[in-house]
């Protein structure tokens, strides 16, 4: 172990008779994808720094079923949902935070009808609340004067109307927030949603992520900020496609904040 | 003689409205082919949506030019319909400008009708230019060939002709009002800010001839309106009526929330229930009830709101122009999904009409015969189309229901998606990783 991340599991908490303030739902990407794991760790570093009592499900976590549902496999989705709900209810989970808008949307909107009622928040909203209550402070530091543009994830923005939290966080970094010509409700998809991440694109004349990267490059940012592990992958691939890796970085909001803190 | 006129007018009215209501009945019948879904909750937000979006055109103005022009045509339509009340009364009772007794108010009314009629002419001309000369991209998609293209133009021509007739009618009337000593029953009433400039056209014609022209304009105008009203049924112009119920019944939940199929919930619960007898036979289906089908392959599997959506679609293409799949050259066009659904619904409706009220299977379905799996699989479920639609239509909900049919009834997902689903089933993740490794990141560099 090269760094000291404190990541208790719900099972450990329960054994100590404790209930965490929030359950951090890591998600499949956050658990297994090499790039997304960095986002997970950045977020945990911030939680550790702010002394937030949190826990993860660890090996008890399973896919929320979002990609199955968007692909049309309602059976598989509901099986996943019911198994997860059983686990979550077993731990009497109340408040869940997640860095994946797909998990966020599914847990928040689709689980309640199946018996899983929780307060679900996206990590950008949670980080903002930490700042607002003074549990976390950040300074612009290395991002001062940098141009940052934010790509709205469809399942956070249009699907759930969360537009301001990530923007507030960026402005706290003393960075210059530049908006793409299509942003907020008019944002363009990165191309990964609806289970597209897991299949080849239908024939066309361009990849969606390349088109979206062009939107971003138009405003000449130093950093493209994301709030979704899938968007992150798509935009990173787009930047590579445009051979701009040297000039433009793609970073999750959690990473921006962790970096500003030198965490 | 003049009684003949009134009777003829009454007959024309009865035919016009009779045919219209007959077609409205068909629309309602066709919409009811869809399965039931409850949209009665939360009436206050529903009324609010309708007031803002249908009446207030709040989503139209997101594209300012089209929005502003649309509002002019829309206001013109509503206000000139008030004039229609007078026309009908005059026609039925042989009166002339029955509301003239309102005096100044009447002048203001007629004056504003005229100005609106003129503005409508301008707006409609700009619309025509955008479609036929500037050729805006979203009007040029493949699904906009043939009737859909001419339909849009017919509507514009109709409006041009009707507005011109209205102004000509007023101009010739004004001409007769000004005959020294008065002419027949053409009393002095109304104010004519626009048609006063057309009036000199009639100088030098005999009074009797101008009177004949007035009658002709009047008749053409009212008959034109009736024909136009009946044309709605065949046209995307139906939205002027259906936008209201459509926005009222539109989805109020967060756009990301897809419905949880109830039939599936029951089955999954049974599968997961440790006490359930795995060898028990499935409960026998209720007599006369079709076994539940998962997802949608034809219009009867969609719900009535989706079918109402299809009739309401104005084919404006705002959805398609914002669709990431369409922008990157894929076959998917959310507008086409709506147009196909309506076409298929009409086809099924005609089949029912031809077969004394029952649908005789025609070996066709909305899926495959109209909408191909390739279109369906290109959707990223991003909701851009839903957000854009000025009348709150959700093409995405139809796409999802058809994907469900492909996957759950036909196991016809693209191969990589099958792999993804197998992984979720076996490992609890869309990739081939072991669930036991879920926390490994904690100790990795
Ligand atoms: S939800 Fe699907 S159809 Fe609608 S805009 Fe997005 S990709 Fe296109
Ligand atoms: S679905 Fe809505 S946005 Fe799309 S063409 Fe029809 S009316 Fe226009």
Q: Could you report the average pLDDT of chain B, rounded to the nearest whole number?
A: 92
3D shape of chain A = globular
Q: What percent strand of chain A?
A: 5-15%
Note the quaternary state here: heterodimer
Average of per-residue pLDDT values of chain A = 95
Q: How many individual helices of chain B?
A: 17
Pfam families (chain B): Fer4_8
InterPro entries (chain B): 4Fe4S_Fe-S-bd (IPR017896), 4Fe4S_Fe_S_CS (IPR017900), HdrC_iron-sulfur_subunit (IPR051460), Helical_ferredxn (IPR009051), NarG-like_sf (IPR036197)
Keywords (chain B): 4Fe-4S, Iron, Iron-sulfur, Membrane, Metal-binding, Oxidoreductase, Transmembrane, Transmembrane helix
GO molecular function (chain B): 4 iron, 4 sulfur cluster binding; metal ion binding; oxidoreductase activity
How would you concisely characterize the structure shown here?
The complex is a heterodimer of chains A (263) and B (445). Chain A is α/β, with parallel strands linked by helices and 263 residues long.
Describe the structure.
Chain B: InterPro entries: 4Fe4S_Fe-S-bd, 4Fe4S_Fe_S_CS, HdrC_iron-sulfur_subunit, Helical_ferredxn, NarG-like_sf. Chain B: Keywords: 4Fe-4S, Iron, Iron-sulfur, Membrane, Metal-binding, Oxidoreductase, Transmembrane, Transmembrane helix. Chain B: The chain crosses the membrane at residues 6-24, 65-89, 109-130, 151-169, 216-234. Chain B: Residues 304-335, 369-399 form the 4Fe-4S ferredoxin-type domain. The complex is a heterodimer of chains A (263) and B (445). Chain A is of the alpha/beta class. Chain A contains eleven helices and eight strands. In chain A, the strands form two sheets. In chain A, strands 2-1-3-4 form a four-stranded parallel β-sheet. The longest helix of chain A has 17 residues, at 74-90. Chain A is globular and about 50 Å long. The two termini of chain A are 16 Å apart. The mean pLDDT of chain A is 95. Chain B has 17 helices and no strands. Chain B has helices at 2-31, 43-55, 64-93, 104-132, 147-177, 207-231, 239-248, 262-272, 304-312, 318-322, 324-327, 334-354, 366-369, 373-377, 384-388, 395-409, 415-427. Chain B is mostly helical and 445 residues long. Chains A and B meet through helix 2, helix 3, helix 4, helix 5 and helix 6 of A and helix 8, helix 11, helix 15, helix 16 and helix 17 of B. Residues 323-325, 332, 334, 379-385, 395-396, 399 of chain B line the site of one iron/sulfur cluster.
């Amino acid at each position: 172990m090269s760094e000291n991340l404190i990541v208790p599991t719900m099972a450990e908490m329960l054994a100590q008779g404790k209930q965490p303030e929030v359950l951090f739902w890591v998600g499949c990407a956050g658990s297994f994808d090499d790039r997304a794991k960095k986002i997970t760790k950045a977020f945990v570093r911030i939680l550790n720094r702010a002394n937030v009592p949190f826990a993860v499900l660890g090996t008890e976590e399973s896919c929320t079923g979002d990609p199955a549902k968007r692909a049309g496999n309602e059976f598989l989705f509901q099986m996943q949902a019911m198994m997860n709900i059983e686990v979550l209810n077993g731990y009497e989970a109340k408040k869940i935070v997640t860095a994946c808008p797909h998990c966020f949307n599914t847990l928040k909107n689709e689980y309640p009808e199946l018996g899983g009622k929780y307060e679900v928040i996206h990590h950008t909203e949670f980080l903002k609340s930490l700042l607002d209550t003074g549990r976390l402070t950040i300074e612009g530091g290395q991002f001062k004067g940098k141009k940052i543009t934010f790509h709205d994830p469809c399942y956070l923005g249009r699907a759930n109307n969360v537009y301001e939290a990530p923007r507030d966080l960026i402005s706290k970094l003393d960075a210059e927030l530049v908006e793409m010509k299509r942003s907020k409700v008019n944002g363009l998809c990165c191309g990964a949603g609806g289970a597209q991440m897991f299949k080849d694109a239908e024939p066309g004349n361009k990849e969606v992520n390349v088109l979206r990267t062009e939107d971003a490059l138009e405003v000449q940012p130093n950093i493209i900020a994301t709030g979704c592990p899938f968007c992150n992958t798509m935009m990173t691939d787009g930047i590579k496609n445009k051979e701009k890796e040297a000039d433009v970085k793609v970073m999750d909001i959690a990473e921006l904040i962790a970096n500003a803190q030198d965490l | 003689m003049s009684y003949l006129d009134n009777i003829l007018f009454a007959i024309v009215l009865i035919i016009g409205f009779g045919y219209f209501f007959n077609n409205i009945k068909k629309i309602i019948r066709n919409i009811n082919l869809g399965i039931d879904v409850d949209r009665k909750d939360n009436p206050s937000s529903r009324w609010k949506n309708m007031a803002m979006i249908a009446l207030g055109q709040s989503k139209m103005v997101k594209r300012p030019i089209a929005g502003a022009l649309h509002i002019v045509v829309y206001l013109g339509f509503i206000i000139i319909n008030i004039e229609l009340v007078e026309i009908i009364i005059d026609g039925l009772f042989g009166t002339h400008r029955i509301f003239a007794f309102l005096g100044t108010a009447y002048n203001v009314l007629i004056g504003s009708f005229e100005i609106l009629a003129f503005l409508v002419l301008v707006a409609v001309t700009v619309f025509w230019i955008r479609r036929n000369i500037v050729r805006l991209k979203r009007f040029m998609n493949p699904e906009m060939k043939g009737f859909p293209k001419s339909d849009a133009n017919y509507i514009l021509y109709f409006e041009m002709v009707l507005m011109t007739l209205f102004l000509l009618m007023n101009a010739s009337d004004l001409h007769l009002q000004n005959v020294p000593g008065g002419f027949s029953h053409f009393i002095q009433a109304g104010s004519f800010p626009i048609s006063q400039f057309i009036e000199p056209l009639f100088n030098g014609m005999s009074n009797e001839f101008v009177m004949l022209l007035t009658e002709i304009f009047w008749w053409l105008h009212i008959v034109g309106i009736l024909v136009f009203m009946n044309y709605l049924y065949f046209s995307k112009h139906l939205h002027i009526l259906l936008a209201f119920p459509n926005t009222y019944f539109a989805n109020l939940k967060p756009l990301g929330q897809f419905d949880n199929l109830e039939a599936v919930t029951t089955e999954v619960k049974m599968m997961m229930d440790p006490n359930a007898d795995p060898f028990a036979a499935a409960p026998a289906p209720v007599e006369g009830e079709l076994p539940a089908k998962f997802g949608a392959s034809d219009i009867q599997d969609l719900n009535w709101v989706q079918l109402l959506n299809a009739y309401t679609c104005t084919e404006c293409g705002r959805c398609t122009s914002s669709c990431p799949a369409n922008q990157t050259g894929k076959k998917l066009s959310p507008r086409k999904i709506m147009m196909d659904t309506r076409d298929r619904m009409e086809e099924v409706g005609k089949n029912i009409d031809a077969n004394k009220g029952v649908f005789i299977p025609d070996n066709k379905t909305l899926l495959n015969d109209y909408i191909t799996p390739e279109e369906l699989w290109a959707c990223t479920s991003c909701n851009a189309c839903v957000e854009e639609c000025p009348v709150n239509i959700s093409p995405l909900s139809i796409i999802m229901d058809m994907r469900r049919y492909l996957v759950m009834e036909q196991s016809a997902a693209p191969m990589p998606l099958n792999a993804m689903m197998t992984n979720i089933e076996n490992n609890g993740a869309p990739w081939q990783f072991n669930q036991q490794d879920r926390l490994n990141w904690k100790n990795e560099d």
